[in-house]
Amino acid sequence: MKVRLFDSLTRSLRDLETAEPGVVRMYACGPTVYLPAHIGNFRANVCWDVVRRTLELLGWRVRKVMNITDVGHLTRDDTADGGEDKMEVTARKEGVDPLAVAQRYIDRFHADRRALRILDAEAYPRATEHVPGMIALIERLVARGHAYVVGGNVYFEVATFPAYGRLSGNSVDALVAGARVEPHPDKRHPADFALWKTDPSHLQQWDSPWGRGFPGWHIECSVMSVELLGTETLDLHTGGEDHLFPHHECEIAQSEGGRGVPFSRFWLHNRFMNVEGRRMGKSLGNYWTLDDLVAKGFDPVAVRYLLLSVQYRQPMNFTLEGVAGAKASVDRIRGAVRNLVEDPGAPPLAPAEAGEFDALEEGFRAALAEDFNTSAALGKVFDAVRKVNARGPFDPAGAARVRALFGTFDRVLDVLREDAPRAGGAPDSAIDALVAERQEARRARDFARADALRKRLDDLGVVLEDTPRGPRWTRR
User: Fold this and answer.
1) Which terminal Cβ of the chain has fewer Cβ within 10 Å, N or C?
2) How would residue 369 be classed by pLDDT, with cut points 50, 70 and 90?
């Protein structure tokens, strides 16, 4: 089935075409791990999980990579290149190493991601592990005349890249006139952005041809995406609409300026999510992490359903009432599957009736193939729910056919299976939470608490292994 998606660069619906037939090399901008990911972050993650699952349902092979930013993302993330590194804000506040901060919130991110049933990416590269590649790309940009060095800092010169602003619709002149950027004594133009920064007080530094320093945020994704996916031109690059400018605009400029080929064939951006009708903020009392919602008694599966229920390109308003409604919707779908009662004496599906179920599957696939329209796809799911609930018992062949239909739905939705305890007596999400809690205790040097949690995990039948990259667990 042909897949059409709205490409942010051309602002048009386009048929998906990739370099390698049947394979999509997909890169998603991931978290900056200085705080727990919040529910707005996970809206994007669930959207891209739906994109990946849809493509796989329709026969594509998806190679998805999502980065982890653990250095270089400043509190002023526009082209002013100002403020403090976000990782260092938390590290200084807590008196710990930035890498310890990163590992804590990486663990938390993955625990939340699994609870929301977001499939594993092929890789989660950390920026700090790819600095040599960043230095190499910056050297190419300097050699090609796209970047210049001032006092140990390296800046990209936007005047050398006429296409700058095409993705976001921002012209350089408009940016300056609108005061989005400010004059800087080291920059040739206010819109020039940092590729490498020198700051003796920075907690994370590397040697480079321009002195010890650290990479700019934008250069990181240009390197990690290419190194992990093995191509200089990605098929699909995703992110939130807040990434349009400056992050993705700068990615394009430095990637294409340094390599001379298009950076990505397609760009997808999800719209913002408000919470209770307002922008999310701790001062407004509407800042939610997944743990906050679970503490209020909400099931992560209901949260997943709510986040995917609105098509990615539509704005969304997240409410607690909405989560409760999502739980009711999940229960309706699960209830329909439970209502698939087999009775050998029940009449078989009539041809017309079987055709209706087949049409619902085709409609589900078609809705998702048209720019991942989850709202329309869910309409087909509930048409099937109503048909099942109205029919009564099914003969064995008919029941198998309709169960397969709901199995198709769930390859994208992933809401049917319940987190019932398995061997060991606890669901994966509960074990992830205990492992993360033990890590917190170890970092706080509360070894008695850490030992007690390890004993609890052992009692649940969990084999825990501490590795240089963090704890790993399996069930006995």
Assistant:
1) C
2) very high
Query: For the ranges 50-54, 124-128, 418-422, which has the lowest average pLDDT?
Result: 418-422
* Distance in angstroms (rounded) separating the CA atoms of residues 196 and 135: 8
d(CA 224, CA 77): 19
CB 46 within 8 A of CB 301: no
Model confidence pLDDT, tens digit, residues 385-440: 999 999 889 999 999 999 999 999 999 999 998 864 433 456 677 788 888 889 88
| Contact yes or no for 244/269 (Cβ under 8 A) | yes
Contact 238, 245 (CB under 8 A): no
Look up the CATH number of the domain holding residue 46: 3.40.50.620
Q: Is the pLDDT of residue 466 over 60?
A: yes
Give the single-character DSSP code of 341. -
Provide the number of structural domains found in the chain: 3
User: How far apart are alpha carbons 251 and 101 in whole angstroms?
Assistant: 26
- 370 and 296 housed in the same domain: yes
Residues 13 and 51 in one domain: yes
Residue-number span of the structural domain to which 471 is assigned:
429-475
Whole-structure pTM value: 0.86
The encoded tokens of residue 418 equal 């319940």
Domain identity same for 437 and 395? no
Q: Note the pLDDT tens digit of each residue in 289-328.
A: 999 999 899 999 999 999 999 999 999 999 999 999 999 9
What does the alpha-carbon distance between residue 393 and residue 265 come to, in Å, rounded to a whole number? 49
Query: C-alpha distances in angstroms, 330 versus 108, 176, 186, 266, 300?
Result: 25, 49, 56, 32, 11
Task: Give which of 250, 279, 49, 38 is closest to 146, Cα–Cα.
Answer: 250
Tokens of 426: 């606890």
Same domain, 346 and 212: no
Taking the C-alpha atoms of residue 44 and residue 244, their distance in angstroms, rounded to an integer, is: 14
